[in-house]
Amino acid sequence: MRQITAPQILCFMCLLSLICVLGVGSSYIFLGTLPLGDFRGVSLLLGGVVFVYLWAFVVYRAFLHVMPLEEGEIAPGSRAEFAAQVDTLFYLLLFYSLIRTHFVPVPVMRLVYLALGARLGSNTYSAGAILDPPLTDIGANCIIGHDAVLFSHGIEGSSFSLSRIRIGDDVTIGAAAVVMSGVEIGSGAIVSAGAVIPKGTRIGAGEVWGGVPGRCLRSPRVDDDG
């Protein structure tokens, strides 16, 4: 794993400071004059937290617009590494608590993932964790089971790479399954509970995969012959 450098930390801290100023200012502007009574302090605090996260989404997406994540092997000291490491800081220090704690209801998490840059089709929901939303494309009518994990980054020693996950329509990913970077899943496919799909795997439409490492358990062609 590569070390996060001082310039990357400084960039993130500047963006975090901006987020906090905007969040606190918005809370004061929209809630400061309301007659909140005995719960004024609590209301302002909760409102401040909500506004901070709303502004975090805006600032995060603005950062990615200026410095988009680049797929492929990330060279040390490159602009791509800078963007990826700042993105990591956003995840670890701001968005981890939303994605990994199961505190936020699943329908609301759909909105969170969309705000973070994931491409989700209609009626698609995740009860698991999408760790790299800007590099995740999922079609319509898909479900990601409880505690399943999708991640589009690969870290192997000092090697660091990013590769988009692409999932078609009507796909089911079972509870506690792991889908690694660069995986493509065709429409109607099923990844069984607890399966681990290695990076770069291609799953065909209608196939059923399971196991560790994941392998094809059933294909549409075999079903038709039977």
Describe this structure in words.
The protein folds into 2 domains: 1-101, no CATH class; 119-226, Hexapeptide repeat proteins (UDP N-Acetylglucosamine Acyltransferase, domain 1, 3 Solenoid), CATH 2.160.10. The chain has 5 helices and 18 strands. It has helices at 6-31, 40-66, 79-99, 106-115, 220-225, and strands spanning 72-73, 119-120, 125-126, 129-130, 136-138, 143-144, 149-150, 153-156, 159-162, 165-167, 172-173, 178-179, 184-185, 190-191, 196-197, 202-203, 208-210, 215-218. The strands form 4 sheets. Strands 3-6-11-14-17-18 form a 6-stranded mixed β-sheet. A 5-stranded parallel β-sheet has the order 2-5-10-13-16, with helices on one face. The radius of gyration is 20 Å and the shape is globular. The model has no long low-confidence stretch (mean pLDDT 92).
Which labels suit this protein?
UDP N-Acetylglucosamine Acyltransferase, domain 1, 5 helices, globular, alpha/beta, six-stranded mixed β-sheet, 40% helix, 2 domains, 226 residues, five-stranded parallel β-sheet, single chain
